[in-house]
Design goal:
By secondary structure, the chain is an alpha+beta fold. It contains nine helices and eight strands. It folds into two domains: about 90 residues, no CATH class; about 150 residues, no CATH class. The longest helix is centred in the C-terminal third of the chain and has 15 residues. The chain binds zinc ion. Zinc ion binds next to helix 6.
Length: about 260
């Protein structure tokens, strides 16, 4: 097999690009990207010999890691700050390093206390719930398939086909999968599957169903489980939910709870 020239050197370049940030590293600027939970950092490197490309460095850092995904070096702080400003919005690279589903176990452990105790839905009820939610999020309603089965996985979301497959009929399972579709389509979150953007979206959807828990209770519990949750600002789905709340609060026809 012939390898396209450049492929290997690309791998080495990437590996070298993880720069360690330690307590003594001067960090000049930091910006948290809400959906992924990663931070864009502008720092000064003390590497010796002095990097020829410059001492100022801008890159992304995964939460609770000290390895900076190195973007670029700069000779001057002004140039570095400019690059920093331009890259705040884009978020970190959508590669395995930033897609790693670090908090999936904590999400399942948090849900364990409530998901199977939520109401069991009929297929028309499932369809009605996703239809109402899709109106709020301004998206096409996903197809819902119910295949009752004893499986380890309770439900699945098929992002590509905008489809939810339910193996158990419980409301919270449906809302979890719906949150995956909303996070993908509305937030365009292509980072961790159960990352901070997913959590904010899921909590927002859960809050529409007061029968599940008192307001704020599930978020409080999630924080106790150590889950990282994006702030509402910067999550497009939260903006749509707020809009819906403003238009719809206290009008019964807007309530997505199945009857
Ligand atoms: Zn999930």
């Amino acid at each position: 097999m012939t390898r396209k020239s450049g492929t290997l050197s690309e791998i080495f370049r990437r590996r070298r690009s993880l720069v360690k940030i330690h307590d003594g590293t001067p960090v000049y600027q930091q910006h948290l990207h809400p959906l992924s939970g990663a931070s864009l950092i502008l720092a000064r490197t003390d590497a010796r010999p002095r990097p020829v490309q410059g001492r100022y460095i801008v890159g992304w850092l995964v939460a609770e890691s000290d390895r900076l995904w190195h973007y670029r070096n700069f000779q001057t702080e002004t140039e570095a700050r400019q690059f920093f400003e331009n890259h705040k919005k884009s978020g970190p690279p959508q590669n395995q390093h930033f897609k790693n589903d670090r908090q999936v176990a904590e999400v399942y452990s948090w849900e364990h206390s409530f998901r199977l105790s939520t109401m069991a839905l009929s297929v028309p009820q499932m369809e009605s719930v996703v239809r109402k939610l899709s109106q709020i999020f301004n998206m096409e309603a996903p197809e819902v398939v119910f295949k009752p089965k004893k499986r380890k996985v309770y439900a699945e979301a098929d992002l590509e086909n905008n489809k939810i497959i339910m193996y158990r009929p419980h409301l919270a399972l449906l809302l979890h999968e719906m949150a995956h579709l909303v996070n993908d389509q509305v937030n365009k979150d292509k980072w961790a599957w159960h990352g901070p953007g997913f959590m904010r979206t899921y909590l927002g959807i859960l809050s529409l169903f007061p029968i599940l828990a008192k307001e704020g209770k599930l978020e409080e519990l999630a924080r106790e489980h150590g889950l990282s949750i994006a702030r509402e600002q910067g999550v497009p789905a939260s903006r749509l939910l707020r809009k819906w709340h403003n238009q719809c609060s206290n009008t019964p026809h807007c309530d997505p709870t199945p009857t």
